[in-house]
Specification:
The protein is an alpha/beta fold. Helix content is 41%, strand content 14%. The protein folds into 3 domains: 212 residues, NADH-ubiquinone oxidoreductase 51kDa subunit (Rossmann fold); 100 residues, Roll (Ubiquitin-like (UB roll)), CATH 3.10.20.600; 99 residues, NADH-ubiquinone oxidoreductase 51kDa subunit, iron-sulphur binding domain (de novo design (two linked rop proteins)), CATH 1.20.1440. It is built from 18 helices and 13 strands. The protein starts with 21 loop residues before the first helix and ends in an 8-residue tail after the last helix.
Length: 454
């Protein structure tokens, strides 16, 4: 059976005759879930989210219901809800269509979630480059407020909640929730140490805070409408629901596709939905979940342990499209920003490009990340510029190993994981590249006037 899409969150995206205004959304039943939700007990709504077993769609994959459950409701402080729309992971662009084409689905999700956790105020932290997206969302908030869905006495209830939209400063680490909260509060976008800065206890303004991304919050009305039990039966039990995959790189049909978890395999997805490789080429490598995830080499095999204790050999193209299956193969789906590389790609050049980005985006708090990311970037540039040394291969791996687990936030892993997997799986390509450069002799190196030794 060919792989197919199942559009739930993306049901309105690119729909003929659809517009972003509130009247169009309400004609399709928009805000009806919010109207019914404000009449239900909050504990019941939170329990439905927990029963759904929906995981966060922002990258970490933490169960949304559990995150809500951790909220410190006894502190006496106000509770805040923050929508993370700072979509800055290279290769990821799945939230943007929701912001631009279906903003009221996001607004309804925010208000449903805000009521359920009894948030005093909600915020949308949007990527600074999404200028038009900011304007569209602000217009949607104004429309919803005019009709009583945002602001005082939501839907005629005694619950009141405002939504404030804040544009980010173009900083990648603000996608990490504590860095986002620091920026939202007016400080530098520095991630904070957990503990004590768990957002559920010490979040925005040191108050209990829920941080969910755009796609996650769009699931909330679906959970309230269908029930947590029903949603948990969509897809595979360990990762229910659908995922919106943003596919870029060397495929026939790059784009954004929503599929039910576990409904197809990676190979089926890439051939049936994405059209396969470009003419005359073959797949070489896949980064499944945004550029910070570990790379998969096309054709490699894995020994995967099944729940019954048996071990099964699994090829890359046979990996089921759910988070647990990718984790069993040593990588993760992250933000579902799939990057496809074919046999024309120079893996050292591809890694050097990523390394330059991550070195630029390090906030500088942690020495291993601040220094290590720059060293890694310089070494891969050295290899690509023709000055590579055989010992650089192990040096790259050594630096990456010494970054992992030694930083405040996961930016350290974002630097290290691509290096560990790319160099580890394509070592012979790096070695061959360096040996070819050695055979060219010193004159070719001297011709590169832009390069300086480090």
């Amino acid at each position: 059976m060919a792989a197919t899409q199942k559009r739930i969150i993306y049901r309105h995206i690119d729909l003929e005759g659809w517009s972003a205004d509130i009247d169009c959304y309400m004609k399709d039943g928009g805000y009806e879930v919010l109207k019914s939700a404000v009449a239900r007990p909050r504990e019941e709504l939170c329990a439905e989210v927990e029963k759904s077993k929906i995981k966060g769609r922002g990258g970490a994959g933490f169960p949304m219901g559990m995150k809500w459950k951790f909220l410190d409701r006894k502190s006496g402080k106000p509770i805040y809800l923050v929508c993370n729309a700072d979509e800055s992971e290279p290769g990821t662009c799945k939230d943007r269509p929701l912001i631009y084409q279906d903003p009221h689905q996001i607004i309804e999700g925010i208000m449903c979630a805000s009521y359920a956790v009894n948030a005093a105020h909600a915020f949308i932290y949007i990527r600074g480059e999404y200028i038009n997206g900011y304007r569209i969302l602000q217009n949607a908030v104004d429309e919803a407020k005019a009709k009583g869905f945002v602001g005082k006495n939501v839907c005629g209830s005694d619950y009141s909640c405002e939504i404030t939209i804040c544009r980010g400063g173009g900083c990648y680490v603000c996608g990490e929730e504590t860095g986002l909260l620091s920026s939202l509060a007016g400080g530098r976008g520095y991630p904070r140490i957990k503990p004590p800065y768990f957002p559920a206890v010490m979040g925005l303004y040191d108050c209990p805070t829920v941080v969910n991304n755009v796609e996650s919050l769009c699931w909330v009305p679906q959970i309230f409408k269908l029930g947590g039990e029903a949603v948990s039966k969509i897809g595979v039990p360990v990762d229910p629901g659908t995922h919106v995959w943003g596919v870029s790189g060397q495929v026939q049909k790059p784009g954004r596709y929503e599929i039910e978890t576990g409904s197809c395999k990676l190979g089926e997805f890439l051939y049936d939905i994405c059209g396969g490789p470009l003419a005359g080429r073959t797949f070489k490598a896949i980064i499944p979940g945004g550029s910070s995830m570990k790379i998969l080499k096309w054709g490699e095999k894995f020994n995967v342990k099944r729940p019954d204790g048996t071990v099964e050999e699994l090829r890359v193209e046979d990996i089921p499209m759910d988070s647990a299956s990718f984790m069993s193969c040593g990588t993760a789906i992250g933000s579902c920003g799939m990057i496809v590389m074919d046999n024309t790609v120079d893996m050292a050049e591809a890694l050097a490009n990523l390394n330059a980005f991550y070195a630029h985006e390090s906030c500088g708090q942690c020495t291993p990340c601040r220094e290590g990311s720059l060293w890694i970037s310089r070494i891969t540039k050295r290899i690509c510029d023709g000055w590579g040394r055989k010992e650089d291969i192990d040096l790259l791996l050594d630096i990456a190993d010494n970054i992992c687990g030694r930083t405040i936030c996961a930016h350290g892993e974002s630097v290290a994981w691509p290096v560990q997997s790319n160099v580890g799986k394509f070592r012979e390509e790096y070695l061959s590249k360096i040996e070819r450069q050695d055979m060219m002799g010193g004159q070719a190196r001297l011709d590169n006037n832009s390069y300086r030794l480090i």
